[in-house]
Design brief:
Blueprint lengths: L13 H13 L9 H11 L14 E2 L4 E8 L4 E8 L2 E6 L4 E6 L2 E2 L5 E2 L10 E7 L9 E8 L8 E10 L3 E12 L11 E3 L4 E6 L24 E6 L19 E4 L6 E4 L6 E5 L6 E6 L3 E2 L9 E6 L2 E8 L14 E2 L4 E3 L5 E6 L13 E5 L4 E4 L18 E2 L4 H4 L3 E4 L4 E6 L6 E5 L3 E7 L1
Parallel strand pairs: 15-19, 19-22, 23-27
Antiparallel strand pairs: 1-28, 2-31, 3-4, 4-5, 5-6, 5-7, 8-9, 9-10, 10-11, 12-13, 13-14, 14-15, 16-17, 17-18, 18-23, 20-21, 24-25, 25-26, 26-28, 29-30, 30-31
Bound molecules: calcium ion (3 copies).
């Protein structure tokens, strides 16, 4: 999901325009999907259970015959992400409604836990959730939310991280603003995926917000000081900068865990090594999976995937030369370190969520493996290499590059398909199963047959 809002009108930019449209067509775009939930509502009247309709090619499926897809719920409106608060008890966000909904035992509560006034153009809206259940004695669980607060009398729209308390499993109260990032560019590449780390800090992805070549966090040496965009932000549960700053002392550079990121909808920690991984979306090329060490520089806007972006009009969108060791990057006095992706797609794969399966529910062969969802309905699976610094890949993928999107080349990592647009994935903390929420409004779980 990418794409600029302003399209250069001049004829010589037609190639760029076509590429913009091809990207739009390749990756689901929230704006295009406004009508789809309605469609699915009518379809859901016909299908009570997805799993039983296995002969229908448009139903989601897993290629391993020992596993199958079961529908948990259908009928959400543009959900973006979810979090468990108990067994069969899920909080899920609706992007445009600005609501936090609760699905308990396959039923949605009539009244949302929260209904915020959000700006929801394009990739803005109610975007991120993380839950910290185990607070100190007798205190309420924390629910963290990332959303685009609507413009109000004179105040511009802002992308904000808030902390709420979950009271009686039914209300979100005592809001505390932890972080406010400028919604300065266009309304794409907002990010907003949230995650609580093993260090009990909260991590948030914030894309470049389509404000190109603006800051040092986009590897522009004479650019503006980083402003919390184009990175992975790490902040304490009280909204403070963690004491062990990575890239510099000055706010908000002291919040950055990683930078050089164009657009990300997925982060997760390896349960074995405790290291962070992300997925990143390129423009017309170069979607990525990265091992994100502290101070990781992903290279944008100098490199995406392993290719240098070529200029079209004002925007670097089309694929340029291979750039394995990009030079002239911003390194914040040696503290930032570039590394190439552990996997990259030459043609957009439309990557979204990334999840480590920290359970043996599907057998030993999947335990602690990586799963990556896409907004075109594909689900990928990766075995880790021996020291878990990358993936175990063979044949055409030995070079860490998917040159095509064909099943032939991707066979070894293609795990499932036809999910619609995968918005988020979670491993159920109570049953160890992989749960998938789709842009079309369904929640699925993968179960052993
Ligand atoms: Ca990168
Ligand atoms: Ca495995
Ligand atoms: Ca290859």
């Amino acid at each position: 999901m990418s794409v600029v809002g302003v399209i250069p009108p001049v004829k010589k930019h037609l190639k760029g325009l076509n590429e913009i449209h091809s990207r739009r067509n390749l990756c689901y775009n929230f704006t295009r999907l406004l009508l789809i939930p309605l469609l699915f509502f009518f379809m859901s009247l016909a299908f009570l259970s997805v799993a039983s309709a296995s002969d229908d090619q448009e139903q989601p499926y897993i290629s391993d015959p020992n596993l199958e897809v079961e529908q948990v719920f259908r009928g959400l409106h543009l959900p973006t992400t979810m979090a468990f608060i108990g067994p069969d008890d899920i909080l899920v966000l609706e992007k445009n409604s600005g609501t936090v909904e609760r699905i308990t035992n396959g039923h949605k509560l009539l009244k949302p836990l929260l209904d915020e006034d959000v700006s929801y153009s394009d990739e803005r809206g109610m975007l991120g959730i993380a839950v910290e259940l185990n607070q100190t004695n007798n205190s309420n669980p924390y629910v963290f939310l990332y959303y685009t607060k609507s413009a109000t009398n004179g105040e511009k729209a802002r992308n904000q991280l808030w902390r709420y308390e979950l009271v009686s499993d039914s209300k979100l109260q005592n809001p505390k603003l932890l972080l406010s990032t400028p919604a300065t560019g266009k309304s794409f590449h907002v990010g907003g995926k949230l995650l609580i780390g093993p260090d009990h800090n909260i991590y948030a992805t914030v894309g470049d917000q389509t404000k190109y070549k603006a800051t040092q966090a986009q590897n522009i040496k004479n650019g503006a000081f980083p402003d919390t965009t184009s990175g992975i932000i790490r902040i304490t549960l009280d909204g403070q900068a963690p004491p062990n700053h990575i890239l510099g002392k000055i706010y908000p550079l002291n919040l950055y865990y990683a930078y050089g990121i164009r657009n990300s909808f997925g982060i997760d920690f390896d349960p074995i090594t405790g290291k962070l991984w992300d997925t990143e979306d390129g423009p017309e090329f170069g979607d990525e999976i990265n091992l994100v060490e502290p101070g990781f520089n992903s290279g944008w806007s100098r490199v995406q995937g392993i290719w240098k972006p070529d200029k079209i009009g004002n925007y670097d969108l089309s694929i340029g030369n291979m750039k394995l060791n990009p030079d002239n990057l911003v390194d914040f006095e040696g503290k930032g370190k570039y590394s190439r992706p552990e996997f990259t797609w030459k043609i957009p794969a439309c990557v979204s969520a990334i999840k480590f399966l920290n359970s043996d529910k599907y057998g030993e062969q999947y335990k602690d493996d990586v799963f990556v969802g896409t907004t075109v309905g594909r689900l990928y699976h990766f075995d880790m290499n021996e020291n878990r610094t990358g993936f175990s890949l063979h044949n055409d993928l030995n070079d860490k590059i998917a040159d095509t999107n064909s099943g032939d080349e991707l066979d070894q990592i293609l795990f499932g398909s036809k999910f619609g647009g995968i918005a988020d994935m979670q491993v159920g903390p109570y049953d160890g199963l992989l749960y998938i929420v789709t842009i079309e409004g369904a929640i699925y779980k993968i179960v052993p047959r």
